[in-house]
Amino acid sequence: MNKKLFSIIVFCVLGSAITVAYLMNSNVNEHRSTENELSRNSYNSNETVLQKQSLKMNGPADLSGVLIETHFTDIDRKQINKLQFVAFQGPILITLSNIMITNAIRLTIVDPANGEEIVKIEQSEVYERKFTLPRTGTYDLYMEYVFNGDRGKTDPVHVTIKAKSLLFTEMDPPWVALRRFETFETIEEPFDLGIRSLNGQAEDVKVYLDDQFVGNGMLNEPFIINPSNLNDGFHHITVVVKKDKTSNNETKLIRDFVVDRFDTFLDVPKSHWGHHPIEVMNHLGIVEGPGNQRFKPDASMTRQEFAKLLAITLGLEVSDKPTRYYDDISPESWSKPYIDALTNAGLIKGEEKEGKWYFHPERTINRAEAVTILGRTPLFADVPIYNYDAPYPDHLDMPDWAVFSIMRLKNAGWISGYSDGTFRSKKTLSRAEASKLVIQFLIP
Asked: String of b and e for 338-368 (b: at least 16 CB within 10 Å)?
């Protein structure tokens, strides 16, 4: 082989090697620059998918907008809809709408890689909220309806989300329903869950009782729950529904019921008018008896006992900086945290004498005082005060400061008075009456 031919061969080999090395290095650099974000081809592909699914595209050019219509079958019962999406790292804009004015949506975005909550909001107002996605990748969107008393039509709720190269592989979790569970419903006999489809199909239905898996269900087929072996108290059923086993989207329905076969308190049998609220409040850990399986339902309730009952029921936070100090409440008193909580919430005021404030914690509370305190809660702010009839035949015996609250609670259906039609505002409130009155805050 002559030297000229050999030189040409060496030159070609070296040139090829340099070209390959350059291409390999370019591929590595390109991979490094895009390993934490979607490729531009994927972005274009995602946009094409979104357009094919006829999703609404809004916002600036670098953001994709998706309008989600999510359904809640029983707005006063717990349901969580989960949707999975992919998006670029960067801003995410969220707008909620079509929610009844007193209700709200609790929306959470979770990074499934580490369980971190990226977004957590609860709102009913229609305005845009801005957050930041910390990385490019997959996220789980959870939506739960928060019922605050407005039973108007809310279905579907609209959720508009904008993010860079936003893609939902599936837009709707299964829309399903169960048998109607009343609040604190007592169930002792076997019952059918009544799992049924409202729109579309779902092949993957799992049923849990008190967080324990009990079986796979089928839409529109009976699924029997037998409470005969359950202990007295609260129990909850969770039904998780997916379109199929490969789907990342799901609907989770959670329902509670009460098993009540045995009397917790011997002096409050099932025949007692206060049995159900007292049993329920006891199972919730809100009320208890003095011991020996006794509740003393007819015993009078003191003002500090009522303060504790109401503060726990309302879930009021206790502050170490009360807005008012009572001269007859010592710092070590067991009732001080509850009295402070109600004072800070504006529900109790106490009595002023010579520049000092007194609460009279051990004094029994009468019916007018109790109803006045309840009437100050936000729940009754919009309840009308006046009607055409006097609220009760003994209305002239009512203190002036209690009349408006008594009328509000009567018009709201919370109080009805005694069998003879009277209210008896000066009569002390019994422990059974207090339980029946306050438990209504827990009933939608």
From this structure: bbbbbbbbebbebeeeeeebebebeebbbbb
Check whether residue 311 and residue 421 sit in a common domain.
Answer: yes
Separation CA 296–CA 265 (nearest Å): 9
25: part of which helix (H) or strand (E)? helix 3-34
> Could you tell me if 415 and 352 lie in one domain?
yes
Helix (H, G, I), strand (E, B) or coil at 121: strand
Average pLDDT over residues 420-428: 94
Q: Residue 266 falls within a domain, yes or no?
A: no
- Please say if the pLDDT value at position 105 is more than 90: no
List of E strands, 88-200: 90-97, 104-111, 116-123, 128-133, 137-146, 157-163, 167-168, 175-177, 191-192, 196-199
Inform me whether the pLDDT recorded for 57 exceeds 70.
Answer: no
pLDDT in tens, 187-239: 989 999 999 988 777 889 999 999 999 999 999 999 999 998 899 999 999 99
Output the pLDDT for position 48. 37
**Domain co-membership, 299 together with 382:** yes
Beta-ladder partners of 138: 86
Q: What is the mean pLDDT of residues 297-316?
A: 96
Nearest one of 437, 439, 435 to 423, comparing CA atoms: 437
Burial 394-426 (b: 16+ CB within 10 A, else e): beeebeeebbebbbbbbbbebbebeeeeebbbe
Q: Does 213 lie in the same domain as 312?
A: no
pTM for the structure as a whole:
0.74
146: CATH = 2.60.120.380
Q: Are residues 158 and 182 in the same domain?
A: no
Confidence of residue 155 (pLDDT cuts 50, 70, 90): low
Residue (of 426, 442, 415, 435) closest to 273 by Cα position: 435
Domain count, the chain: 3
Q: Is residue 309 part of a domain?
A: yes
